[in-house]
Write a structure and sequence with these properties.
It is found in: Mitochondrion. With 691 residues, the chain is an alpha+beta fold. Helix content is 36%, strand content 13%.
């Protein structure tokens, strides 16, 4: 131990570890205490080899990385997370960035639209819009100027963010996305056109830019659309842009008669116009009780305006009604029930949009009809009866002597060369020769089959006391709040409630340090969407679609991570909702990318195991419809009771100055109300009381 404390102790003088007098000399070299200090002199003498020396990076070494170029830029992707993804995974990634409304547009809305109103009135009307949207799940067309301002304050930000996200997805899926004619349809101030202009930049100048604002009294919304569009460089001339910069801080009303923008705000849609891009933003259904008739009529009208090779973008709110609207429009365009055996994404013929229609074979044009078969059977019976008793060996001689010998031409059928004989055991699809209208899905569906989540009736989601929880296809979006939105949601009307007494101890602890609930500078929005393309049905298009990456399955929900395993719920190309397991044994890159997958991404790297989620059974659907019918009847009965109660209770408006009316007058008033009811008119018509 004296040698251990000796100041002249030299570690380099020890020739080997066996000669060491240190107390840990029996340990392996890699586990020894102070090995870095002790190993330096031994490495210099060449006695040991440091296998980890290659991992040590010194200041004078050049900058090297598997994900960066020598200049420090990323080899692929825009950030460190994307740089580490597989190229196929990165190609299937959706845009998950936070959407920001351009500052010029936000300032214009605040200074030239909302500043003209009393803030309390805007908040009150916005609260009514949110309540109606929560109850009816569908937007209403603004009527007055105050309604238009409240609509812009409450819904424009989320609508803009949702449409922009969908257009970014379309731009990513289509290599050369530059439409020459655009049509935007919606309730708002040309929201789709505003989002498209911001996405394409100031050099975006197509030959046709039309916007149709839905609603009978839409003049106020048209004025506000011109104000917002005038703040985009691609909408105005260069001189107007320069003069607009001087007045960008102007606060007050704007005379829209002096504003000239390139987008034509249309009063109606022309059936003669055709467009390369049509954006329909929450405008397929006007009333919930009109589902699905309104959807069928409106989608047929919109498809008639689409150019060959053009794209149709449908955006709805991310609730059950919005999803069912999208699913119904998809069903009308693709008709998956007629192609149960077809896989992939081959363009489907859209018969209603095609000029030449496939004609069914008429009875008079058929070569062989039922009458011909019956006549042949009758002739056969007569011949058998006539030749009865003749021996089989004498039958041929008897027929030849009576009718003459047969030649080869007599044995042929009429027009035999023109008749194609079909095997009845084989299935033959109808011929669509001449159909010039074909549609295919661009996003988000990876197949053209029946939607596995579609129920067909939005009311089924409202059935109470049902154990099954229905999923629907929707996507989440995050948008940064501008100043006018923050100002709108101040106060008691629209601010988030903050009551600690209703929260458990665990919930309060989880919220520590996160600030006031709802007090973030961002807000979340859910949306459902569908992108369709009109394309030819030739062989080249089919080969292109089959080889496209669009056959990758779409991630429906974020990954569920387990130890050394990742589970992904995807909408697969088979047409089912499947759970894919991607374990760590699939590979380092595949496992890493699976953990980074998010909702809406395409997953191209495969899976280890698959489990198909069972669809809602026919028995369950019948039971659900029965429950929905019963619930609807209960609601109608309660409504009728309330109406009858209002009719039978004495009306306070009829009593003025506390003076009671005579019974005869009240009797006449209530009798008039009763005879005006629907039930009374039906009973009167049924029993012919009016005669």
């Amino acid at each position: 131990m004296s040698a251990f404390h000796d100041d002249n102790y030299n570690l380099s003088s020890i020739s080997s570890q066996e000669d060491s007098i240190l107390p840990f000399n029996q340990k392996r070299h890699s586990e020894s205490f102070g090995q870095v200090v002790r190993s330096e002199p031994r490495k210099e003498e060449g006695e040991i080899e440091d296998i980890h020396s290659g991992y040590v990076r010194h200041l004078h070494d050049p900058q090297t990385s598997d994900y960066r170029n020598p200049d420090g830029s990323y080899i692929r992707g825009n950030n460190a997370e994307e740089a580490r993804l597989d190229p196929l995974t990165l190609q299937g990634k959706s845009d998950h960035s936070v959407v920001k409304l351009p500052p010029e547009i936000a300032k214009t809305i605040n200074n030239n639209i909302l500043s003209l109103r009393v803030p309390s009135l805007i908040r009150e009307r916005a609260a009514e819009i949110y309540q109606a949207l929560e109850k009816e799940q569908i937007q209403r067309a603004p009527v007055s100027g105050l309604d238009s301002d409240a609509y812009i304050a409450a819904l424009f930000l989320q609508d803009y963010a949702n449409v922009r996200k969908v257009l970014v997805e379309l731009q990513k899926r289509v290599d050369t996305f530059n439409p020459d004619s655009v049509l935007d349809i919606g309730y708002g101030p040309a929201t789709g056109m505003v989002a498209l202009n911001e996405l394409m930049g100031q050099d975006f100048k197509p030959s046709v830019k039309d916007a149709y604002i839905v609603g009978r009294r839409n003049s106020e919304m048209k004025r506000r659309a011109k104000i917002i569009l005038s703040r985009q460089p691609c909408e105005v001339e260069a001189q107007a842009t320069a003069s607009g910069k001087k007045a960008k801080d102007y606060v007050g009303a704007v005379d829209t008669r002096k504003i000239d923008v390139k987008t034509n705000i249309r009063d109606s849609l022309s059936s003669e116009s055709k467009y390369d891009l049509i954006i329909v933003n929450q405008a397929l259904l006007t009333r919930e009780h009109s589902f699905p008739r309104d959807v069928d009529v409106n989608i047929e009208m919109v498809l008639a305006l689409l150019n060959p090779g053009g794209h149709l973008v449908l955006v709805e709110r991310g609730n059950p009604l919005g999803f069912e609207i999208i699913a119904r429009a998809r069903q009308v365009m693709l008709r998956p029930e007629n192609y149960t055996d077809e896989k992939g994404k081959i363009p489907r013929p859209y018969i209603r949009g095609s000029k030449p229609k496939p004609q069914k074979l008429r009875a008079e044009d058929q070569l062989i009809t039922e009458e011909h078969i019956k006549m042949e059977e009758e002739l056969l019976r007569k011949i058998q009866a006539e030749e009865k008793g003749i021996e089989d060996e004498d039958l041929e001689e008897h027929l030849n002597s009576k009718y003459g010998e047969l030649s080869e031409d007599d044995l042929k059928f009429e027009d035999e060369e023109e008749v194609e004989v079909l095997d009845p055991s084989e299935s033959h699809k109808p011929s669509y020769d001449g159909v010039d209208y074909h549609l295919s899905v661009v996003a988000p569906c990876p197949h053209h089959g029946k939607c596995p989540l579609q129920l067909g009736d939005p009311y089924l989601y409202k059935v109470r006391n049902h154990k099954h929880r229905f999923s629907f296809c929707s996507f989440n979006n995050v948008v940064e709040r501008p100043k006018f939105t923050m100002e709108l949601k101040k106060g008691k009307k629209l601010a988030s409630s903050w009551d600690k007494s209703k929260l458990s101890k665990t919930e309060r602890k989880a919220m520590e340090g996160s600030g006031r609930p709802g007090g973030n500078n961002t807000e979340s929005a859910d949306y459902s969407y569908l992108i369709m393309q009109r394309s030819p049905n030739d062989e080249a298009s089919i080969k292109k679609i089959e080889s496209d990456r669009e056959h990758s399955s779409s991630v429906e929900e974020g990954p569920a991570t387990w130890p050394k395993n990742v589970k992904l719920d995807v909408c697969a190309a088979s047409g089912n909702i499947e759970t894919w397991q991607v374990p760590k044994s699939s590979g380092k890159q595949t496992y890493h990318d699976a953990r980074k997958a998010r909702q809406g991404d395409l997953w191209p790297l495969g899976k280890k195991t698959v489990s198909v989620k069972s669809r809602f059974s026919e028995e369950g659907m019948a039971r659900l419809k029965s429950m929905a019918k019963s619930q609807r009847n209960i609601v109608l009965k309660e409504k009728r009771k309330k109406e009858w109660k209002k009719m039978t209770v004495k009306d306070p408006a009829l009593l003025e100055d506390d003076s009671e009316m005579d019974p005869a007058t009240l009797n006449n008033i209530y009798a008039a109300k009763f005879t005006s009811t629907k039930k009374y008119r039906q009973q009167t018509k049924r029993h012919d009381f009016d005669k």
